[in-house]
Write a structure and sequence with these properties.
The chain has about 140 residues and is mainly alpha-helical. About 80% of the residues lie in helices and about 0% in strands. It is built from seven helices and no strands. α5 runs antiparallel to α6. About 40% of the residues are buried.
């Protein structure tokens, strides 16, 4: 449940702690998805509250909104498929939390956005599990 690295860091970290690949995958997906519905539903209100209450955080909020806007262009073109692809690509700056932020700012319905985000998280998790397992085999034998 760490922003930016999300399950991209959680799965290798779980494997390094001795979890099986499937335990690390399930923990990564669960931890990644836990805050997602809350982000989709409440983030715009939270940002509004932060701007009014903490003017010093305005830059952070503006930056997050710009990020959502730039990522949202792709999602807007393909809607829920675009949201799935954004979340499924296991690169920094993509993932469930970014997908949830984009969904919120594009006013996508939670009922439809959440399955797209979940499928993207599972896909990214499977990719990261495969990469973690492959790299560990290559280096640890």
């Amino acid at each position: 449940m760490v922003p930016v690295v999300e399950l991209r860091g959680g799965i290798p970290f779980g494997a390094a702690l001795g979890l099986s690949r499937w335990q690390a995958l399930v923990a990564g997906v669960a931890g990644n998805m836990l805050p997602t519905p809350f982000i989709v539903v409440y983030i715009r209100r939270i940002f509004l509250w932060m701007r009014g209450r903490f003017p010093r955080l305005r830059r952070v909020v503006d930056s997050l909104e710009r990020k959502a806007s730039s990522k949202g262009r792709t999602v807007l073109r393909y809607q829920y498929l675009g949201l799935f692809i954004l979340v499924a690509i296991p690169l920094p700056g993509t993932g469930a939390w970014t997908g949830a932020l984009v969904a919120a700012f594009l006013n996508l319905r939670l009922k439809k956005a959440l399955p797209a985000i979940l499928l993207g998280v599972i896909t990214a998790g499977l990719i990261m599990t495969f990469l973690t397992h492959t790299v560990s085999l290559a280096f640890l034998g």
